Backbone:
């Protein structure tokens, strides 16, 4: 009876799983808190892997819808004019300036994502996150499926692709505030950088899986490059609906430290023990007043500009700069994300050890500038050099991006200035990631406009963006180092 009471708010799939486990292994005694936390990490990791997996196919699609078809063998059974060198392309992207049209598609998705993100954080603070994530994943899968459906329905209207991209951008905003808030609900501040660093590898893993899956189909049928990831996304959304417990109280578990402190300040009806007003979900302006939110938001604006330019254009750049095929270019581009996984974990570990998250990010921003120059100048001399420099670029570009969007956002969302109000995490996360997403929208769009005039110009823009990301953190870096020196002096004095 006690177990049933504890699980009354748990999703049906989770209750069934626990019931079957008790029947099959009646003598097995598990650490319930650890078991649930592990399940939450796995489910949220899977969820955001799917979100990024569905963003990646368009970068692979760019390599096959505008190319010289005279070098290709027409498929059997098709009556194709031998003088037609555009038979393998797809209108309206089969014309001069197609990079600009593709950049516009990227921006349609990313600007819709950025603007809707601010509203998404507001909604996420006020609804059941299991429903929020499950519905968002299913709708995101539908958006990806609709893009690929254009191949089978022979749709060539630019407006169709733009509308699908806008729809996809809006529904994808359910992902980040949702998963970060769920993980923040379950885990305290101890080793948060390391936990989030490992967990945040879902971003890079999603990119790798999306690239690999899209690359498998792209030269045979690019429609399936979108439809198959969309199908996987929808299925995983159903899994989230059936098994995710978004908060420890849903399954009768204890709360992490920062939420325990908050709960001790409140009556059961939500009012303060001292008679103050109830703690409500924080507003947009209130979140902006949290120290550090504006600085990290603007830093992420430029950091995400760089990361998403690589996400959307790297396979195209590799194909242009080398003699590799579209599929080979897509496969090679995944090494950037492999480096990103390492970079996210490194940034988290360094931040945990030093206690200086802004300084950790700034050090990586400084190293990124010469690394981007080296990759553009020497990356294509041979395959070994390309692989090494590409992974180092991924490590340095995605390290700060991962740290800001996870551990730092969670830290700011439970800042001591909130005086026990824990209902700010989704709003703060949405503000930081939404601001970063505006930069993510601008980067690929600018790359599409500038690339025809030389990819070296694109890399110069990315270097400048890294410098700007560094400058916005200068005040916090100075404060962190002053605090560190005071602590060291106190240690020496003692």
Residues:
């Amino acid at each position: 009876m006690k177990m049933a009471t504890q699980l009354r708010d748990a999703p049906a799939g989770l209750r069934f799983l626990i019931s079957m486990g008790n029947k099959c292994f009646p003598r097995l005694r598990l650490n319930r808190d650890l078991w649930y936390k592990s399940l939450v990490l796995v489910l949220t990791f899977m969820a955001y892997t799917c979100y990024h997996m569905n963003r990646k196919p368009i970068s692979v699609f760019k390599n096959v819808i505008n190319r010289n078809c005279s070098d290709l063998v027409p498929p059997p059974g098709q009556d194709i004019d031998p003088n037609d060198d555009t038979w393998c392309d797809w209108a309206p992207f089969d014309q001069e300036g197609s990079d600009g049209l593709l950049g516009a598609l990227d921006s349609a998705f990313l600007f819709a994502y950025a603007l809707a993100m601010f509203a998404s954080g507001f909604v996420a603070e006020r609804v059941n996150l299991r429903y929020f994530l499950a519905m968002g994943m299913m709708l995101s899968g539908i958006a990806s499926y609709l893009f690929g459906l254009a191949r089978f329905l022979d749709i060539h209207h630019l407006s169709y692709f733009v509308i699908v991209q806008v729809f996809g951008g809006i529904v994808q905003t359910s992902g980040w505030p949702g998963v970060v808030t769920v993980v923040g609900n379950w885990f305290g501040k101890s080793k948060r950088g390391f936990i989030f660093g490992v967990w945040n590898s879902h971003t890079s893993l999603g990119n790798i899986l999306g690239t690999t899956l899209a690359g498998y189909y792209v030269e045979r049928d690019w429609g399936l490059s979108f439809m198959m990831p969309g199908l996987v996304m929808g299925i995983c959304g159903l899994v989230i609906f059936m098994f995710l417990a978004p908060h420890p109280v849903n399954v009768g578990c204890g709360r992490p430290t920062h939420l325990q402190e908050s709960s001790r300040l409140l009556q059961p009806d939500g009012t303060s023990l001292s008679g103050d007003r109830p703690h409500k979900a924080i507003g947009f302006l209130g979140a902006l007043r949290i120290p550090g939110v504006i600085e990290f938001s603007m830093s992420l604006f430029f950091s995400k500009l760089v990361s998403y330019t690589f996400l959307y254009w790297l396979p195209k750049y590799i194909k242009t700069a080398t003699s590799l095929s579209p599929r080979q270019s897509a496969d090679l581009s995944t090494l950037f994300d492999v480096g990103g996984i390492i970079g996210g974990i490194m940034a988290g570990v360094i931040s945990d050890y030093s206690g200086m998250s802004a300084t950790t990010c700034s050090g990586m921003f400084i190293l990124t500038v010469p690394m981007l120059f080296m990759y553009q100048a020497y990356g294509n001399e041979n395959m070994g050099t390309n692989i090494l420099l590409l992974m180092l670029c991924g490590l340095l570009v995605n390290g700060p991006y991962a740290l800001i969007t996870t551990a730092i956002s969670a830290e700011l969302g439970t800042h001591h200035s909130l005086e026990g109000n824990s209902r700010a995490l989704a709003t703060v996360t949405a503000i930081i990631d939404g601001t970063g997403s505006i930069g993510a929208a601008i980067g690929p769009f600018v790359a599409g406009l500038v690339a025809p005039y030389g990819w070296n110009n694109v890399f110069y823009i990315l270097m400048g963006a890294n410098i700007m990301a560094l400058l916005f953190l200068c005040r916090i870096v100075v404060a962190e180092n002053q605090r560190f020196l005071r602590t060291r002096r106190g240690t020496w004095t003692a």
Summary: The CA atoms of residues 204 and 337 lie 5 Å apart. DSSP finds 20 helices and no strands in the chain. Confidence is low (pLDDT under 50) at residues 1-5, 257-279, 418-422.
